[in-house]
Amino acid sequence: MDALETALRENRAYLCLSxxxxxxxxxxxxxxxxxxxxxxxERAVNDDPASWxxxxxxxxxLTCLRCSALCPGxxxxxxxxxxxxxxxxxxxxxxxxxHGDAIFTWMRLMQxxxxxxxxxxxxxxxxxxxxxxxxxYFVGCLPHYDAMFRxxxxxxxxxxxxxxxxLNRVGIAPRVLPDERCCGHDLLWAGDVEGFRALAHLNATxxxxxxxxxxxxxxxxxxxxxxxxxPSACGLKVEVLHISxxxxxxxxxxxxxxxxxxxxxxxxxxxxxxxxxxxxxxxRTLLAAAAELREMEHERxxxxxCGTSVWTQCGQVAKAIQDExxxxxxxxxxxxxxxxxxxxxxxxxxxxxxxxxxxxxRVAVRDLTGVLADALVGE
Length: 379
Ligand code: SF4
Ligand code: SF4
Ligand code: SF4
Fold this sequence. Notes:
By secondary structure, this protein is an alpha/beta fold. The chain has helices at residues 2-10, 21-25, 37-46, 57-60, 77-90, 102-109, 142-149, 157-169, 185-189, 193-210, 220-234, 243-253, 281-290, 316-331, 342-351, 368-374; strands at 135-138, 214-217, 239-242, 264-267, 292-294, 336-339, 364-367. The strands form two sheets. The protein has a four-stranded parallel beta sheet with strand order 5-4-6-7, sandwiched between helices. It has a three-stranded parallel beta sheet with strand order 1-2-3. Helix 13 (281-290) links the parallel strand 4 (264-267) and strand 5. Helix 1 runs antiparallel to helix 5, helix 10 packs across helix 11 and helix 12 packs across helix 13. 48% of the residues are buried. The structure holds iron/sulfur cluster (SF4) (3 copies). One iron/sulfur cluster binds next to helix 2 and helix 3.
């Protein structure tokens, strides 16, 4: 099986020392004794694929990179899980979508080159967007998630509105594209490489036609995907920045003024911005200028994941991880846990919207853009 051999070699699985450090820190393994990244590697190296390729273990990994930093063999477990999922898919095994495949269905619909969308209804009259500028705000799937998750406290398209508002305040009127497609992050990490590439090529064509030279995202997953995966998937060569990076530069240059309040906030590092993208400082610099910043027990490289990835395997283990993270925010005496990834906000607000939460969420969860928009001087 050539693809398996390639996945084993490219992700350094043969160099696994069976030390178990990955399993010791893995947020999933800490809640689910049946899951072990060490054992998953061991089986992939030694056992007949028929005995493990169709199993659930491949879909349990959150691809959060927590284990990789500690691995003495430099095994790339997140990427290994991603590549094995592509292989599993070829053999008929897919991770079950917690939302009945609704989310993956719209990602597939967006692969139609002739699709015409109406995805800009969130732009209000007070927001300035450009018809011909070369800086794009890549909105991602916010309008779709807004329709599905707003009822549980997800900020939805308000994140897009706050992003444009903040960009306007630092002198940028961004382009927004009416036919932008999903970035394809979830397809790629769920093993649908062909579907991911189709979306990447459609987006890259739209960027080129519009003359885009710089892309700003408000989603950590879009950021990772456009910056790290598009160059090899579709040859994208433009600068990609997360909104926190643009605003931190503006703050340092004196072109962004924030009013500091006594609001106690803790920053939840989204794995795609932090461990994947290496950006820990920009959101903290901004939050420290806008509020009273607290740190949770696990922060920066050691941050806990939001518990759910690519919309699969959301159950007791995911809820236990989310519960632990919310507990860390409370232990830090934070009034608000701030994220810089809309999906983290979806998952955390979901975790607090169950029957046991009838009296309301234990901690507010807000997107970075909302907290910063509230802190703009002169508003
Ligand atoms: S930390 Fe690395 S070397 Fe150790 S068991 Fe895990 S994958 Fe293998
Ligand atoms: S990437 Fe994260 S979830 Fe996956 S095995 Fe490593 S620590 Fe566990
Ligand atoms: S935590 Fe996330 S994946 Fe799980 S049900 Fe809620 S929104 Fe869906």
